[in-house]
């Protein structure tokens, strides 16, 4: 199979079409799944519904519950063992190597976002770390001031003006949205040379693809063992907490992609003081 | 999976070694007097938090008490609580509001105090300040783990009014803690069919569980 890389414009139109189809599906699901508060009778409820951006919530909660089970029985224990048994320097090496393998995807997306300097940095990093950093195990380039750049096609779509769409929880993958789901598919299936390399001779190479996938999942999960644990412990509704974290964090990353600092998802704190008499004194009353 | 590793730096929220460059950078990146005071306030909290963190001789009870003291001293606790509850605050009656505020503070205290044991020697550098509105200043800091890795941006929103400087939110890698709690609580109230009483029940149970966990060690 030969695929020539289409131009950004073609991508944008294909993506618009996909988003259109997704939107139709979403409307169908919405009718079946979520209750939208009445705009006039319950304006605050309606505003909250819009802010959540989760019309497929009942379906998403189902997938979330499924993912939680998989996590509790497989991924979390695996990550726990990994974090416990693998010495930290080796963990760092694994992270570096996996990142290094991802360089082509970062490079292509930097180009598509018009960030030539970052694209250059990524090429330099790849060469330096592959040659001088023993196949990418050591991040020599970072020591030289060439920091890791993070770019993906979901971000690229955002830069091109594609809206994120409603919140989605994907089976096994987790929090996402139509834009990021398409982005992930394109990054993995189209941009990643390793996918092409595996496809060229699957019988001999497939296990390397799975090894990389497994290592990525386990090493990533190992980094947030305490955090996920804290969320499960302290939040009243972990589903809603993770949804909020994902939306805020991702919007921040996308804001970076545009070269600006995105405002936080947080409140305008002048509001805080307007609600009732000033609560703020040097020694707040208990 | 969702990359939450940056949230690790919430620990650094109170942990953190103030670098020597602190005094210099505060003066450098800060425009006016109120911004300078907001930055000083955050620096003070980080320093005090660090003292508490390093004190391994404390019993878990004393640790809770001192954590809560710092929280009350530096954060606009009640205002945050109100904002987090959002529109449901106005729906609640006075008794419910009062109980909610008590439980909210306990939830934060017992929920976060455990993280004090996880301190890994992060360092906090104050980069400067940004004025967000007449009454709100963001103190921009950068938190670095001792093991290296990319520093994480942590913004402290400070509400400044009538000479009082209190932190109203902590934004870690673009994730606002207040916003996250607000989403969590709204969802929980909805799961309870919109009943404030049922929600307070859930909150009460959660606080009791966290408290038992903290005091049980």
Q: SSE layout and pairings?
A:
The complex is a heterodimer of chains A (about 290) and B (about 220).
Chain A: H1 8-33, H2 43-52, H3 57-85, H4 88-101, H5 103-112, H6 116-131, H7 140-143, H8 153-159, E1 168-170, E2 174-176, H9 178-191, H10 193-200, H11 202-223, H12 225-234, H13 238-257, H14 270-274
Antiparallel strand pairs in A: 1-2
Helix pairs in contact in A: 3-11, 4-11, 5-6, 8-9, 10-11
Chain B: E1 17-18, H1 22-29, H2 33-54, H3 60-74, H4 77-85, H5 87-91, H6 94-113, E2 123-131, E3 136-145, E4 148-161, E5 164-172, E6 175-176, H7 177-191, H8 196-215
Parallel strand pairs in B: 1-2
Antiparallel strand pairs in B: 2-3, 3-4, 4-5, 5-6
Helix pairs in contact in B: 2-3, 3-6, 4-6, 4-7, 6-8
Features:
heterodimer; A: two-stranded antiparallel ribbon; 2 strands; disordered N terminus; B: 217 residues; alpha+beta; Nuclear Transport Factor 2, Chain: A; 8 helices; 53% helix
Number of strands of chain A: 2
Secondary-structure element order of chain B, N to C: EHHHHHHEEEEEHH
* Distance between the first and last residues' Cα of chain B: 32 Å
Written as H for each helix and E for each strand, in order along the chain, the element string of chain A is HHHHHHHHEEHHHHHH
Mind describing the biggest β-sheet of chain A?
Answer: 2 strands, antiparallel
Instruction: Report the major sheet of chain B.
Output: 6 strands, mixed
**Mind telling me the CATH superfamily name of chain B?**
Tgt2/MlaC
Task: Quickly describe the structure.
The complex is a heterodimer of chains A (286) and B (217). Chain A has 286 residues and is mainly α.
Detailed description of the structure:
The complex is a heterodimer of chains A (286) and B (217). Chain A is built from 14 helices and two strands. Chain A is mainly α. Chain A is 68% helix and 2% strand. In chain A, helix 3 crosses helix 11 (202-223). Chain A is globular and about 65 Å long. The relative contact order of chain A is 0.10. A two-stranded antiparallel sheet of chain A has the order 1-2. Chain A has two domains: 8-51, no CATH class; 53-257, no CATH class. Chain B has a single domain, classed as Tgt2/MlaC (Nuclear Transport Factor 2, Chain: A). Helices cover 53% and strands 21% of the residues of chain B. Chain B is an alpha+beta fold and 217 residues long. The two termini of chain B are 32 Å apart. Chain B has helices spanning 22-29, 33-54, 60-74, 77-85, 87-91, 94-113, 177-191, 196-215; strands at residues 17-18, 123-131, 136-145, 148-161, 164-172, 175-176. Classes of the chains: A mainly alpha (286), B alpha+beta (217). The interface between A and B is large, with 61 and 62 residues.
């Amino acid at each position: 199979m030969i695929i020539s890389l289409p131009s950004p414009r073609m991508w944008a139109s294909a993506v618009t079409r996909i988003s259109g189809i997704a939107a139709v599906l979403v409307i169908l699901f919405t009718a079946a799944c979520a209750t939208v508060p009445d705009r006039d009778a319950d304006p605050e409820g309606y505003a909250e519904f819009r802010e959540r951006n989760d019309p497929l919530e009942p379906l998403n909660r189902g997938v979330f519950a499924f993912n939680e089970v998989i996590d509790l029985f497989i991924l979390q224990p695996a990550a726990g063992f990994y974090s416990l048994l693998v010495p930290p320097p080796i963990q760092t090496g694994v992270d570096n190597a996996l990142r290094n393998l991802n360089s082509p995807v970062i490079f292509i997306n930097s180009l598509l976002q018009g960030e030539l300097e970052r694209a250059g940095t990524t090429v330099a990093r790849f060469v330096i770390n592959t040659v001088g950093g023993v196949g990418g195990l050591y991040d020599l380039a970072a020591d030289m001031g060439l920091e890791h750049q993070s770019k993906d096609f979901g971000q690229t779509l955002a830069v091109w003006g594609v809206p994120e769409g409603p919140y989605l929880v994907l089976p096994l993958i987790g929090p996402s949205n139509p834009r990021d789901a398409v982005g992930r598919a394109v990054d993995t299936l189209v941009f990643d040379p390793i996918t092409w390399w595996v496809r060229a001779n699957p019988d001999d190479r497939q296990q390397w693809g799975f090894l990389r996938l497994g290592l990525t999942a386990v090493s990533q999960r190992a980094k947030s063992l305490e955090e996920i644990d804290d969320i499960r412990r302290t939040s009243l509704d972990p589903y809603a907490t993770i949804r909020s974290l994902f939306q805020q964090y991702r919007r921040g990353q996308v804001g970076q992609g545009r070269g600006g600092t995105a405002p936080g998802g947080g409140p305008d704190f002048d509001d805080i003081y307007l609600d009732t008499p000033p609560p703020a004194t040097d020694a707040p009353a208990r | 999976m969702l990359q939450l590793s940056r949230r690790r730096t919430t620990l650094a929220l109170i942990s953190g070694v103030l670098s020597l460059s602190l005094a210099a950078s505060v003066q450098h990146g800060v425009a006016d007097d109120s911004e300078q005071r907001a930055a000083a306030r955050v620096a003070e909290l980080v320093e005090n938090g660090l003292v508490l963190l390093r004190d391994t001789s404390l019993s878990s009870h004393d640790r809770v008490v001192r954590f809560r003291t710092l929280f009350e001293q530096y954060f606009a606790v009640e205002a945050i609580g109100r904002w987090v509850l959002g529109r449901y605050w106005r729906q609640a009656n006075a008794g419910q509001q009062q109980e909610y505020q008590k439980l909210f503070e306990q939830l934060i205290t017992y929920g976060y105090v455990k993280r004090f044991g996880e301190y890994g020697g992060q360092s906090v550098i104050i980069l400067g300040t940004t004025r967000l509105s007449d009454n709100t200043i963001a103190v921009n800091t950068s938190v670095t783990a001792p093991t290296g890795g990319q520093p994480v941006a942590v913004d402290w929103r400070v509400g400044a009014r009538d000479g009082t400087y209190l932190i109203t939110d902590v934004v870690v890698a673009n994730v606002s803690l207040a916003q996250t709690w607000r989403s969590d609580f709204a969802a929980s109230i909805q799961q309870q069919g919109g009943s404030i009483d049922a929600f307070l029940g859930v909150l009460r149970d959660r606080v009791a569980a966290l408290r038992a966990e903290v005091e049980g060690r």
